[in-house]
Amino acid sequence: MPRVVCLPGDGIGPEVMVEATRVLQAFGISFEEHPFGGAAIDGWRKPLPPTTLEACRSAEAVLVGAVGGPQWEGGQVRPEQGLIQLRKELDVYANLRPAVGEGVDLVIVRELIGGLYYGGSGELADGRVFDTCVYTRPEVERIARRGFELARTRRSKLISVDKSNVLETSRLWRRVVTEIAPEYPDVELKHGLVDSVAMWIVMHPGEFDVLVMENTFGDILSDVAAGVTGGLGLAGSASLGDSRPGIFEPVHGSAPDIAGTGKANPTGMLRSLAMALEHGLGEAGLARALEAAVDAALETTPTPDLGGTATTREFGDAVIAALEVPVR
Ligand code: NAD
Ligand code: IPM
Ligand code: MN
After folding, report:
1. C-beta atoms surrounding 151 within 10 Å
2. 234-275 pLDDT, tens per residue?
3. Is the link from the previous residue into 245 a cis peptide, with omega within 30 of 0?
4. Cα–Cα distance between 21 and 105 in angstroms, integer?
5. Do residues 20 and 12 touch, judged by C-beta distance below 8 A?
6. CB of 250 within 8 A of CB of 269?
7. Ligand 1 pocket list (CB less than 6 A)
8. Which residue of 33, 98, 152, 261 is surrounded by the most CB atoms within 10 Å?
9. Which residues line ligand 2 (CB under 6 A)?
10. What is the H or E stretch that residue 65 is in?
11. What is the biggest distance separating any 2 CA atoms in the chain, rounded to whole angstroms?
12. What gap in Å lies between CA 115 and CA 106, rounded to an integer?
């Protein structure tokens, strides 16, 4: 049984995944690749074929490249549905999205398997189209606890993000977070409205430690946070439930505009792999070694998104060269 299941997906997904698998090889960690996303729609008519799902269930960690692209837009079956289904199947409700840069070190804790993405949606007879945002108290409570617990291991500052001045689900969110806060007296809790928090991340990103929020807000603000720390090429993520396996994927998408050009920055993928090593495989030493090698490659061998000229492969070469594999 391979320890890691890799789902390369579409666009630059397979390009950045290759660099992750080279690191797995260097570490002597077994892995297996499976079809997913648009690539799976083309061959198997489903974005998440049953054999792929079964392989994911038996792995210690699942690595995802990216899914989607113009060729599947407007179709009955879409690549993104595979990702949304996989997250639910593995019950990974807590999506950690760190953004680290000059004077910035924050983590967005995004609720991942509720809200607008999973509520009822459709079209009514009169032509109106709807998506529904639904949350239950236990769903809010478990993700809020993740936020408090993570803050506790860092600078003990938590911002809960909502739109409680308008949305009913946000009022539930704020109530539940406020109710459990006394259990974490060491954590300084503040509430913020999503629009002003978005502005504040752009203007003063250094002031944040941990932010916790519902699914859609987390999708948007994690791209904003990536943007203020150097761009989407840099951001990795870990999606965790209460048991393994977790899903580890970059924040970016399939980037059709640069797919096939060798310009993709594999840092987001490699940082996701570092999180998989730590949270999925219990290999914190290897995770630190990989992070250090990626930081070294960012200095010596930057890709075009960072103003450099290195290709995806050259960046990967620099990471492998800088890897000091610790003795286990
Ligand atoms: P995107 O994240 O793919 O790209 C946004 C911009 O960032 C593009 O200009 C792209 O070139 C750049 N970029 C992204 N990753 C980069 C990297 N590693 N190195 C250098 N530059 C990078 O977002 P999009 O263009 O809005 O979406 C494209 C497709 O990806 C859509 O089909 C969308 O649904 C899908 N998507 C998938 C995921 C996922 O699989 N997790 C996430 C986001 C979007
Ligand atoms: C992300 C992506 C996905 C999301 C899409 C592709 C379903 O944008 O992981 O940020 O919205 O969760
Ligand atoms: Mn997104």
Report:
1. 24
2. 999 999 999 989 999 999 999 999 999 999 999 999 999 999
3. yes
4. 27
5. no
6. yes
7. 12, 66-69, 80, 83, 232-233, 249, 252-258, 264-265, 268, 305
8. 98
9. 68, 80, 83-84, 219, 251, 253
10. strand 61-66
11. 66
12. 23
